[in-house]
Description:
It is a single chain. This protein folds into four domains: 2-90, Helix Hairpins (Orthogonal Bundle); 108-234, 3-Layer(aba) Sandwich (Rossmann fold); 245-413, 3-Layer(aba) Sandwich (Rossmann fold), CATH 3.40.50; 445-550, Regulator of K+ conductance, C-terminal domain (Alpha-Beta Plaits), CATH 3.30.70.1450. By secondary structure, it is of the alpha/beta class. The chain starts with a helix and ends with a helix. Strands 5-4-3-6-7-8 form a six-stranded parallel beta sheet, sandwiched between helices. It has a six-stranded parallel beta sheet with strand order 11-10-9-12-13-14, with helices on both faces. Strands 15-18-16-17 form a four-stranded antiparallel beta sheet.
Amino acid sequence: MRLPLLTLVTVFSITAFGLTLIPSHDPDGNVWYMSFFHALYFVSFMSTTIGFGEVPYEFNDAQRLWVMFSIYFSVVVWLYAIGTLLTLIQDKTFQQALKELRFSRKIKYLTEPFYIVCGYGETGSALVGVLTQRNQNAVVIDINPDVINLLKLQNLRQFVPGLHGDASRPIHLIEAGLEHALCQGIIAVTDNNEVNLKIALTSKLLNPKLKVICRADSHEIEDNMSSFGTDYIIDPFDTFATHLATAIQSPALNLLTMWLTGARYQALNHPIYPPQKGRWIICGYGRFGKTVYRQLKNNNINPFIIEASPDLTGLPTSEISSDDWIKGWGTDAQTLDKAGIRDAVGIIAGTDNDSNNLSIIMTAKAMNTDLFIVARNNMEENKRLFDAIKADIVMHPSSIIANKISGLLATPLLYAFLGLASYQTRDWASEMVKRTCLVVKAHVPEVWELTINSSQALAVYNKISSNETVTIGHILSNPRKRDEQVNAMPLLLQRNGMLTLLPDDGMPLQINDKILLSGQLASRFKMEWTLLNKYALDYILYGEYTPKNWLTHLISRR
């Protein structure tokens, strides 16, 4: 708009100045020259076609001739300026610049902690939904404008600002709040490993204190991310393969893991028992197939591979003999028959095409009804189809990543607990499953972290500061019936960097202790009453409520 505005100002100046140079006569017959103010006033309403008339006196012919010239001249310039303005408004680059300006202003004035989520595909949308359900704020960046428009229409619990932009560009990360004082972390879950790598690198360079969580499905990219200190790197294929191996080695531990990482109000899952011996068939030897193959081999299972594009995936290899794989899709009965489907105990439909995976499973079930079936569900929109086919395990990469990231953000101690649990015996895992069932009854447990400080446990904090003893058993007591316990149990205690698995109820608490608990949601609310309310804690500790004021104190004495 610089040139149109300059042209408009120039025309106004020339026409107004011209009127000041033309002599005229006032009603008394005296020679009169129009002031620049009157000239500019007249030109202003003349050029906008309002037409107030000749002011302050009637014009002579010379003035009217100049006005006619000015009218045609100014109209052309106005059309030029308005046309340029309309073109500018319709320009996508200008519209994007305005959107980025409004977006950056919104982020600048945020007053609550937030996370930046890069990529709003299946993983990002699921993650943002979980974060907002937990009253955690999020800011979204995605390169697809349709996705950002969809974000505005979604019925999320909290408002989530969204920016259409390339998250690999530092300017867009800064606009989203990368350097904001309340930014808690950045989560890169785009479907491009290189973009996720660039986001992680930019974040660690511009704000090293931020927690950075990235998705990666390539070991080379993972190594690169680790080299500059990315906090968490999540590979959905490795994560699922580990779950499958856990289910083979210890079904009870796998069940406990599913319960503790499940969504709120989800019904308790039943245990699954993958065959520990026999013939397994893997359809698809891509990134997912390779990861699952290694885990099965580590569990003394020698799987058979069906791969349609061995040149792309790297078959044959020195580790796999020619007798352990066959070229094909696995969607036809002939290929499955050659792979030994009739004698197999399990099949893994692990290609990157949902239609092929569904076809593999249906064909395999028709040939062997006793198969243990593992299905890879790539697209969320096909979820109902995979539910209908009734596979024993369904692997959905986006859900795996979203669940793990939401757990890392809400309860980091949970993964420390699961890491320690993996070293325990099968009997220990079975006992934990029984205890969890007794505590939560029908739905997956609520899992939360508690820090003994002035914000989360003020009453307990004050007691400990006064050298009084408060134990884990005290905070687990029912604030209405002190002889009963709420339906919750401590899983892990962190003190001065040391971890204690399943701490005893009699363990005294210390300031800054972190406790991981699981139980019913209602029990969590009851515990908060004990943790924050001095009188509720006094009742649990001493068996009576202390008076709140002089009147109740007088009544209690009487």
